[in-house]
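User: Run a structure prediction on this.
Assistant: Running it now.
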Amino acid sequence: MNKITQAIVFLSLAGPGVVGNILVFMRYVYTSALGTEKRPIDLILIHLALSNLIIICSTGVTDIVTVFYFRNFLGDIGCKMMVYLARMARGLSICTTCLLSVVQAVTISPRTTIWTKLKPQTSCQVLPFLLLFWIVNVLISSNLLSYIKAGSSLNRSVAATFIGHCYMLPSRHIIKWLFLSLMTLRDVIFQSLMGWSSGSMALHLYKHHKHVLYLHSSRFANNSPPEIRATWSVLILMAFFLFFYWVDFILSFYTGFTVTHDSTLLNIKVFLEFGYASFSPYVLISRDVHPPNVLHAH
């Protein structure tokens, strides 16, 4: 029964998540390729959707193997690649979400501020950041390629940590703390930037709300300009990301500290692993769906 529950949780998140991210990916690829207005933020959204797809697919394979325990389905290479891709894509998701937040905050900032000089004007100005994200996360996750083993090829006399269908071999303390410190530094830097940009956007929205209070027609005030709708969607993404990240962090710390394998906690962890990657595309899709401005003439 526990396996069936885990399978239901997995499919209910992975299925819609794959569909949603493919829709976002195709929508902004089409906009960038054929649209008259090529916005830098479209490339960021394409990259975010791609990162989410890698998370869902790589984590999904290991979850299926773990839930149904297909013996020898993943060999050493399969284990290394799935765990490596999942870890790397999570890092890419953190970095890309941060970049999206910062670019949106700079985009809506008043033109008189110094931050407008940082606003990217073309997609080419965004590419170096995305390339840097790949380099950083490929290097930070590289230690997994040496320490991940499949259960079928593991020497039973060697102490190893079970991570789903695969095992992680013990590493030297200096290596372990080096990569842990690098991941922590990455998360602190990018989440601090998220906090700054989210605060800036929230302040802008508050000022916008005070401004529309002066409008005589409340109906007209509800027709927010596109940049305001985009800012709301990015703020909602930030809230989703921080919720899933910190709850997953706390739960992982708890299970690691207590060495517990409660089935309910495992199901919650599956939900947290897929949560942001599965829900974020629908936040992006919803921002493009808004009531027609029937009062335009008014």
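The beta strands are 148-150, 161-163, 166-168.
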